[in-house]
Amino acid sequence: MDLLIVDDEASLRDFLSIVFEEEGWRVETAGSLAAARLAHAKHEPDLILCDLMLPDGSGIDLLREVKASAPSVAVIMITAHTSTKSAVEALKAGAFDYIAKPFDIDELKIIVRNAVERKELEDENIHLRTALEERFTFSNIIGRSARMQEIFSVVGRIAKTSSTVLISGDSGTGKELIARAIHYTSGRRGKFVSINCGALPETLLESELFGHERGAFTGAIREKRGLFHEADRGTIFLDEIGETSTAMQIKLLRVLQDHVVRRVGSNSETQVEVRVIAATNRDLAESIRAGTFREDLFYRINVIPITLPPLRQRREDIALLVEHFITKYSKTLGVPQKRISSDAMRLIEKYSWPGNVRELENVIERMIALESSDVLTTKSLPEHVLLGGAIPDMTFELPPAGISLESHLEGIGKFFMLKALERSGGVQTQAAELLRMSFRSFRYYAKKYDLIVREGRNDETVEVEDEK
Ligand SMILES: Nc1ncnc2c1ncn2[C@@H]1O[C@H](COP(=O)(O)OP(=O)(O)OP(=O)(O)O)[C@@H](O)[C@H]1O
Ligand SMILES: [Mg+2]
Question: Which of 37, 274, 276, 277 is the least buried, fewest Cβ under 10 Å from its Cβ?
Answer without folding.
Answer: 37
